[in-house]
Design goal:
Elements lengths: L7 H15 L2 H11 L8 H8 L6 H12 L5 H12 L5 H48 L4 H7 L4 H11 L5 H6 L3
Helix pairs in contact: 1-4, 2-3, 5-6, 6-7
Amino acid sequence: MKKYKDDPERRARCDQACKRVLAQKVILAWILKHCTEEFRDIDVKDIENKYIEGEPESDEFLRMLGVLFAEKISAAEKDKKLQTDFGIDMSDGMIDEVEKMCNLSYWYEEHGEERGFVKGVKKGTIEDKYACITNVMETLNTDFVSAANILKIPDSERDMYESLVLGKVKIEDIIKNID
């Protein structure tokens, strides 16, 4: 499977889906309720039905979100585009928040890559140990317990490897559940 980062079409589809969700009246109502003092005590449904008239201008809103969430645009460029294209006053505080948002998105991306790397290492370790166990069993014509003892497989892992050896579970199923 291609990595999310390396699949620009998938990323573009996910970005568009995210923008469409954010443009929904109920989402905008929730944002108003939880981000502004004026709407704090009003029910989300009431905000959606009484205070947001018509449908949100989704094309323009989506275009603004596109600038805000664009990966390859620096915070300074976003600042300029938001001011010139959308008339959004980018005070110092707002510029700082956009910079933090950019840094946070990079952190999430790198964190995801790191988690994928760790999962890959764990998968490789499981596959290697499984191969070692089956090789020892075959070469020495011995049972699982003896092979596990020879290889010093920790007790906490033995049930998993025994299930693999006995064919009760597939290695792919174990890999799916790795954190």
